[in-house]
């Protein structure tokens, strides 16, 4: 059991480090928190966590083996994810200035933010690499069931905690005020970053 506990501790460290690496999820939550408020960012965080559950299930069912046996599937996932990120970048580029009542109106339509968080994480290259390689090593066929359950729980709780922290930090009054003073440059920068992620996915060999 000691070896399994040590393995789970290393999984937690790798999961946290993966969350810290800048990527589409983090930029999405930063922007939603500053532009739409805490509720929208938290809803997107829930969607991101739901997608982590889906990725965990896929890894437990042999995601790495499937992708190794069908390289075209991995390529299709990359291209589909890249196209979605490009569409999201275009939406950011064309987003209108923040109106006086927009943050109050953001309290409605939380389902849309949940879907946005889910879709962004499902197309996130970090997610594909993490769950198809690192996480899959912790849920192999010889691993006890309790380790499978603990690994899934650990990764999902780490993911959710990170999303909640991001939502609270970037929806704070200081962050929202900073966004209000420089919203257009920040939106354009976020659009360029999302577009770069999308292009890298499509052209990656």
Structure in words:
The protein has helices spanning 2-20, 24-36, 38-60, 63-69, 71-93, 102-105, 110-122, 125-134, 145-170, 173-181, 183-203. It is mostly helical and 205 residues long. It has one domain (24-95, 109-203). Helix 2 crosses helix 9 (145-170) and helix 3 (38-60) crosses helix 7 (110-122). It starts with a helix and ends with a helix. The model is unreliable at 103-108 (pLDDT under 50).
Write the layout of secondary structure elements.
Layout lengths: L1 H19 L3 H13 L1 H23 L2 H7 L1 H23 L8 H4 L4 H13 L2 H10 L10 H26 L2 H9 L1 H21 L2
- The assigned structural class equals mainly alpha
Task: Let me know the number of strands.
Answer: 0
Low-confidence stretches: 103-108
Gross morphology? globular
For the record, the count of structural domains works out to 1
> Main β-sheet, in a few words?
none
Helix content: over 70%
Taking Cα atoms only, what radius of gyration do you get, to the nearest Å?
Answer: 18 Å
Order of helices and strands: HHHHHHHHHHH
Q: Which whole number gives the mean pLDDT? A: 76
Tally the helices.
11
Termini, distance in Å?
Answer: 40 Å
β-strand amount: under 5%
């Amino acid at each position: 059991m000691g070896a399994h506990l040590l393995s789970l501790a290393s999984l937690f460290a790798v999961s946290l480090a993966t969350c810290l690496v800048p990527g589409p999820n983090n930029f999405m939550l930063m922007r939603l928190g500053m532009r739409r408020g805490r509720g929208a960012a938290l809803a997107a965080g829930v969607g991101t966590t739901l997608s982590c559950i889906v990725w965990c299930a896929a890894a437990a069912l042999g995601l790495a083996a499937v992708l190794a046996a069908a390289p075209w599937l991995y390529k299709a996932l990359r291209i589909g994810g890249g196209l979605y990120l490009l569409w999201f970048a275009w939406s950011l580029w064309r987003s209108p200035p923040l109106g006086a009542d927009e943050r109050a109106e953001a309290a409605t339509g939380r389902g849309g933010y949940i879907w946005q968080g889910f879709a962004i994480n499902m197309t996130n290259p970090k997610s594909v690499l993490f769950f198809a390689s690192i996480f899959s090593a912790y849920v192999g066929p010889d691993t006890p069931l309790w380790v499978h359950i603990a690994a899934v729980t650990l990764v999902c709780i780490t993911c959710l905690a990170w999303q909640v922290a991001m939502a609270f930090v970037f929806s704070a009054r200081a962050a929202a005020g900073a966004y209000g003073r420089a919203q257009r440059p920040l939106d354009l920068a976020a659009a360029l970053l999302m577009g770069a992620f999308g292009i890298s996915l499509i052209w990656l060999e």
